[in-house]
Amino acid sequence: MDRTTRRAAVTALTAALAGVVVAPPAAQALPAPRHPRTPRPLRRAHAHNDYLHTRPLHDALDHGFTSLEADIFLVDGELLVAHEPAELDPARTLRSLYLDPLLARVKANHGSVYRGHRRPVQLLVDIKNDGVDTYLELHRQLRDYRRILSTYAHGTVHLGAVTPVISGDRAARAPMEAQAVRHAFYDGRLDDLAAPAPAPASFIPLVSSNWTQSFGWQGNGPFPAAERELLHTLVSTAHSRGQRVRFWATPDAPGAARDAVWTELLDARVDHINTDDLAGLERFLRARGE
């Protein structure tokens, strides 16, 4: 879709709402420190491509992040974590990097990822190939961890220590919607906010979008008034339905432009700020009392 078409789509969406390096393979995950520091959790901090850090999961948790992203490929019946097929490693599975360590941590902390913090930590699982088969294998694996997971069962959501949310290949949506019981939820798009019969938050608790497809502003100069209005409208619409909002592809290079965008996201009450810079976002949020 070219930029003109995208902006036309955004204009239409606004009207509808008004009515209501390829990175090198990361090092193998290291074990958690015996006595990890336990920072105050940052409810807006999302670790984009978390698995590319030296210690997947653990580095983000050491910085207080409460949302983490893992890309997965289904390969010979196993779910491997990687950004590109060339980076696939049979030892780097979703179980070994995320599910098993989260289970161990929740057990050690008596029912939560952060001791004493009862709000779920989000695990955003981005399906990179074959959405249907990959999701069905993921569902099979998640059943083994259901004691720590948020679950949808026959119309009711039961919150757990970890809430898996499925993103990536959109073909995963159909099998998920057909399930009476599931241990994961779906990552919606802006189109879901403008749908005539929008899916409930019990299915789509999160709405994510590419920042550059809706906003031209990259943090330099003032935020155009029309774009600020659009941002606030999108967020308030999602919040009115019990849904959270995240944008990817926001500026992420340290500096004034990134800080300006992050400040506008906070002012608009965007729920998850996306970054690869764990320390940078932690400093930014803590300095603002988030």
TrEMBL record:
Q: Which residues form the signal peptide?
A: 1-23
User: From what superkingdom does this record's organism come?
Assistant: Bacteria
Q: Kindly name one Pfam family recorded for this protein.
A: GDPD_2
The protein's matches in SUPFAM superfamilies, at most eight in alphabetical order, are given as: PLC-like phosphodiesterases
Q: Which keywords fit this entry according to its UniProt record?
A: Signal
PROSITE patterns with a match to the protein in the record:
TAT
Q: Which PANTHER family match?
A: ALTERED INHERITANCE OF MITOCHONDRIA PROTEIN 6
Please give the name of this protein.
Altered inheritance of mitochondria protein 6
Lineage, top ranks: Bacteria, Bacillati, Actinomycetota, Actinomycetes, Kitasatosporales
